[in-house]
Amino acid sequence: MTQSKNVALLIVDMINNFDFEHGDLLSKRAKEITGPILDIKNLFNKHGLPVIYINDHYNLWQADFEKIMDYCRNEKSEQIIDKLAPTEKDYFLIKPKHSAFYGTALDTLLQQLKVDTVVITGVAGNICVLFTANDAYMREYQLIVPENCIASNHEQDNQYTLKMMRDTLKANTKPSSEQKFI
Question: How far apart are CA 87 and CA 4, in angstroms?
Fold first, then answer.
């Protein structure tokens, strides 16, 4: 896959309260991927490339990351939020359903930024990340989904999801340490 300077980092649902069945398990897995995602974010910031958070709205219905972080902050999420909090220079969109494209301005934003490649990270790998990757593929974006930057409740779900993204969506799923994003 040819790399492009027209690349954006998508961080899906990492600002999360993990207040659902298997939330404790997903929170532990999300903590494991926080460091690699932060490394990519720092690289993108260094090179002036877009970082876009797409997050559940938690019935607040405001794309205000401070309010959503405050709502989500608890013992399961605090370490993740503290390390990976959006800044004023990041883009922040809320989504009503699983895909980051459904009911959001993400595609319009990516077009305005002239993006042709998306790096997709976040949780849950087998739901929101997978649906986002599928929608990105259908919109003809090149996909990079580093295997160490997505997490699902169960590792077998994560591995199956990565295989589907590689085989069907033509995603590059090498670990972030083996990627050349820029």
Answer: 24
Model confidence over 76-105: pLDDT tens digits?
Answer: 999 999 999 999 999 999 999 999 999 999
d(CA 68, CA 133): 24
pTM across the whole model: 0.95
What does CATH list as the number for 7-178? 3.40.50.850
The C-alpha angle 85, 76, 61, rounded to 5 degrees, equals 55
Question: What are the domain boundaries of the chain?
Answer: 7-178
Do residues 97 and 9 make contact, with C-beta atoms less than 8 angstroms apart? no
What gap in Å lies between CA 131 and CA 166, rounded to an integer?
14
Measured CA to CA, the distance from residue 182 to residue 178 in angstroms comes to 12
